Each structure stands twice: as structure tokens, then as C-alpha cells.
Amino acid sequence: METAVNVPYLTASSEASSDGDQRHPLSDNWARICGRLQTEVGEVEYRTWLRQMTLGPVDHDEITLYLPTRFLRDWVRSQYGDRLGTMWNGEIAEIRRVELMLAPDARANPPMPVAPAMSPVLGAPVAPVAAMRAVAAAAPAVAEPRGDLAAPLDPRFSFEAFVVGKPNEFAYACARRVAERPSSPGFNPLFLYGGVGLGKTHLMHAIGLELTRPARPQGAVSVAYMSAEKFMYRFIAAIRSQSTMEFKEQLRSVDVLMIDDLQFLIGKDNTQEEFFHTFNALVDAGKQIVVSADKSPSDLSGLEDRLRTRLGCGMVADLHATTFELRISILEAKALASGVAVPPKVLEFLAHKITTNVRELEGALNRMIAHANLFGRSVTLDATQEVLHDILKAHDRRVTIEEIQRKVSEHWNIRLTDMSSARRARAVARPRQVAMYLAKQLTSRSLPEIGRKFGNRDHTTVMHAVSRVTELMERDTAFAEDVELLRRMLES
Ligand SMILES: Nc1ncnc2c1ncn2[C@@H]1O[C@H](COP(=O)(O)OP(=O)(O)OP(=O)(O)O)[C@@H](O)[C@H]1O
User: Fold this and answer.
1) Do the beta carbons of residue 69 and residue 16 sit within 8 Å?
2) CA 238 from centroid of its chain's CA atoms
3) Where are the beta strands (DSSP E) in 200-252?
4) pLDDT value at residue 136
5) Residue 107: which pLDDT band, with cuts at 50, 70 and 90?
6) ipTM of the prediction
7) Cα-to-centroid distance, 360 and ligand 1 (Å)
8) Does the annotation place 48 within a ligand binding site?
9) Whether the Cβ atoms of residue 351 and residue 361 lie closer than 8 Å to each other
10) pLDDT tens by residue, 167-194
11) Is the peptide bond before 8 cis (omega within 30 degrees of 0)?
């Protein structure tokens, strides 16, 4: 691959270079990526979402791309973030991250609100641009980072915006406590852990936002938040530029240090060592540390023992997998904040289908909201299934018809073979109908495909089973609860 620039230690910028060359050093790479994007997503989608993206600076392994509004930035981040990362990495192997940011001039001149912040209820069409501006104008300004040391805190990730339920109430309470009284004995360090997309970063930002609030009664304190990956690259850069002392001093001058995704430091011995010393220096000086990882300190094998021990010394709080109830509450809160009317049926459908992580759940809802705002169409179950076809298909694959048949037979205590037998006794026929109903609800199989799995039955038999079960569920609450329970068991 040909490139004239020396990545990763290049400091490029979209501004003119000193020799008067107005071109960004990576503009050829960018042109190629744009061309590919256009082919991949199609002209209309490209023009709607991606055309306004511009190149920003390159810093080590990260390239910044600018977008003119917050709405566009958030949308592109959620829908194309990963793809852009892969494309840049394919173009220049050293680039591993793509940061999508609001263009500097857009920050200085926020768009004028041309529609109420809360968009009108669906049915009253919203002009696309007006809708985008309304969302953009409703979003608060990005909190500025501490010098160039840390990453900015995202104002959307506040405590108020965090929905609390059984799986996360302990972690939430610990985070609140640290935000109220940092460096309290027993809460330092605060170690948050849990699976992907369950709210660790959100809680860390919430702590940071609370502590840096100018109106905080005890006065704002200095907070540095960064990913462990960034910590490592900053450290390496400091070694290269012989400014490690400055780096250490900067780190040790903060009141609260938050490091996200610590598992990244596994196998990076020198960086771990540096982090260990920083950690000790800060805790000894009575400063607060907050760390997140995908596993508990004791399960983070690959981290030095002494570091694991210290990490487990304060408060360790686990974010558990979400429950159906929590997913519904999160969706309700996000739908309400968007101002778009999303029927409860759609929320339930999404909460049933997307069970793994909140980021995906939120992404799916955002896509529906954007669709409604852009095209002025109501959010309906049919529209959801159509627009989210790709996401839903990926989730469908998790439940197979065989699993459904097994669970249903166990539940009603019938033989598995009766799922495909010709027996018509109600004790057998009803569970079989329920299994067909669940196969339709939980998989993307067509009616004829489902019929074939049930002893080569016709698609009309499946259709009849679906309507019969739906009807019975409306009439008989106990039966409805049984079916609901089975569905949840199959999805968990
Ligand atoms: N309880 C919640 N209430 C509201 N939003 C939530 C909740 N949990 C997660 N989210 C949202 O889900 C998205 C993913 O959350 P977050 O980035 O904090 O996850 P994470 O645990 O840090 O994931 P990762 O392991 O990928 O770093 C964010 O947009 C966040 O706001």
C-alpha cells in the first residue's frame, strides 16, 4: 500500500500544512474509502448520511472524522462506526480506531432549532432536515477533556439517563456513592465489571460528569477518563518523545482517574507496570480511581498478581446481564427522550429479540426513530421488522426450532417425537401449536419451513396454529403466562 505519511506517529490535520499544501495527507485514502462506501451503501444512503463527513487529525493509531451535527455524528457512529474502522485499517494497517466527532466549526455555531426539541408524534410528518436539527439542538454540548490527557465525557451518559433495575442497581449505587464522596474508604478503587454493552462506560462518564459539574456544592474536581488502550498509546508516545515525566505528572495531578476496559492491558507488561505505579501514587495521595473491565479482578488472568490484588481492594461491582423488564424500561426511557411515539408492542418485540447488550438494543431503537424522523412514518411492528431485518436475523439464529420443540415438550411433559407425529389429541396438539407459534415469533423461518420441521405439515397448519395461540393468549391469562415463560426461557 502506498502512503506518504509516517503513521502511527504522524500528526496530520485537515488544515493547510506549512508548505502551503491544502490537501490532507490521507485524502487519497479517504477518497478510496468514500468510493467504496458509496458502492456498498448505495447513492441515496451515502448522500443522506455519509457525504458530509470530513477528515480530521490523525493521532497515533486513531483518525478523527468530522460530522456537521450531533445527530449525524451519533447516527454514523452507531451504524457505520465499525465499518469505517475496518476500511481505514484495510487502507492503512496502523490505523485501528476511528473517532467520529462534531466538526469544530459546528461546535462554535450550533444549528438553530427549527422545530421543537421533542419531535412531533408520528403521523405528523417531520421534514428530515428539520428533524435532524431538532435532535442536534436538543443534545447538550460535549464536556471538554482535561487538557489532551483524557477523553471527553459524553453528556448523554449521565446518572439521570441511566435506567436502574435489578441487574445493575448495585453498580449504580456504588457509582453514585463515589460521585457523591470520592475516595471514601471501601470505595477506592471502584471496580466495575460486566459483559459488553451493559453500561460500564456510561456509569464512569456519569461519575465524571457529576464530579466536574460547576454547580457541585463541594466544588468541581479534576477528572481524567480514558480507555486502557488510550492510556497505553499515550504512555508509548511519552516514551518516544521522552516526556514520560510530564505524562506521569499530568496523570498524578488529577483528583479522579478513570480507566475503561482494563482487560486491554493484559499482556502489555510495561504499561501495566506504569499503571500500577500511577495507581499507587494516586491512592496514596487520597485520590479516587475507577476502573472497568469485562471480568472481575480475580478472573483477569494475565494481569500481574499485585495489580489484581490492588484492584480488588476497594469496591467491586458487577453489572449483570439485563432482564426483559430492564430492557423494556431502557427502551421506554430512550423512546420518551426521542419524542417519537413508539408503540409498546414494538418495545416488547425489541426487548424480546435483542437480549445481549444494551448498545445493540439502543442502536435498533435509534434506527427506528431516525427512520420515523426522516421519512415521517409511524413506528409500527411491520416497519420495525422491515427496517431492522438484518439485525433481527442475526439474533434469530440463536434459537432453533429444535430447541423450541424440546423446551415445549418438556414443559407440557409430552414426547419430543409428538412434535412431528400425526396425533391430534389436545394434550399433544396444543403444545405443538405453541411450538409452531414460538417458531414463528423467535426465528426468521418461513411458514412452509416451520411446517416441514413439524412432520411435513402444510404452511396453512402453521398459520392456523399461530392465530389459534394468539387468540387463546388473549382469552386465557394462565395460558398466556405459560407461553410467555417459554419464550423467555428460550431467549435467555
Ligand atoms: N441501564 C442503562 N440505562 C440507559 N442506557 C444504558 C444502560 N446500560 C447501557 N446503556 C447504554 O448502552 C450503551 C452501551 O453502554 P456502555 O458503553 O456503557 O457499555 P459498556 O459496558 O462500557 O460496554 P463495553 O464492554 O463495550 O465497553 C450506551 O449507549 C449506554 O448509554
Assistant:
1) no
2) 31
3) 223-227
4) 33
5) low
6) 0.99
7) 9
8) no
9) yes
10) 999 999 999 999 999 999 899 999 999 9
11) yes
Residue 490 · residue 442 · CB < 8 Å: yes
State the closest ligand 1 atom to the C-alpha of 194, by its place in the atom list counted from 1. 21
Residue 288's SS3 state is: strand
What is the pLDDT confidence band of residue 492, given thresholds at 50, 70 and 90? Answer: low
Binding site membership of 327 for ligand 1 (Cβ less than 6 Å): no
CB contact at 8 A, 54 and 101: no
What nine digits make up the cell of 341? 411515539
Q: Tell whether ligand 1 has an atom less than 6 A from the beta carbon of residue 168.
A: yes
Q: Which CATH architecture has domain 401-491?
A: Orthogonal Bundle (1.10)
The amino acid sitting at 168 is N
Domains 166-319 and 401-491 share a fold: no
Amino acid type, 7: V
Q: Which atom of ligand 1 is nearest to the CA of 157?
A: 31
- Looking at the domain covering 11-109, what would its CATH class be? alpha beta
Residue 199 annotated in ligand binding: yes
- Give the residue among 487, 164, 468, 450 at the shortest CA–CA distance from 349: 487
Distance 370 CA to ligand 1 centre (A): 20
Spacing, Cα 155 to ligand 1 middle (Å): 13
The closest of 397, 395, 356 to 196, measured between CA atoms, is 356
| Secondary element (H or E) of residue 290 | strand 288-293
- Regarding the beta carbon of 338 and ligand 1, being less than 6 Å apart is answered no
Cβ atoms within 10 Å of 124's Cβ, excluding its own? 9
pTM of the entire structure?
Answer: 0.60
Cα(369)–Cα(377) distance, integer angstroms:
10
- Taking phi over 0 as left and psi of -120 to 50 as alpha, with beta for the rest, 364 belongs to alpha
Q: Mention every residue, 6+ apart, whose C-beta is less than 8 A from residue 354.
A: 327, 360, 361, 364, 391, 395
Domain limits of the chain?
Answer: 11-109, 166-319, 401-491
Best residue for ligand 1 mutational test, from 77, 154, 166, 202 (most atoms within 8 Å of Cβ):
202
26 contacts 3 by C-beta, under 8 angstroms: yes
353 annotated to bind ligand:
no
- Compute, in angstroms, the gap from residue 159 CA to the centroid of ligand 1: 12
What DSSP element (H or E) covers 375?
helix 358-375
Question: Would the CB of 198 count as within 6 Å of ligand 1?
Answer: yes
Instruction: Report residue 413 as a C-alpha cell.
Output: 411433559
User: What homologous superfamily is domain 166-319 in, according to CATH?
Assistant: P-loop containing nucleotide triphosphate hydrolases (3.40.50.300)
**DSSP helix/strand/coil, 341:** coil
Does residue 461 have a known ligand-binding role? no
How far is the C-alpha of 438 from the C-alpha of 135, rounded, in Å?
A: 38
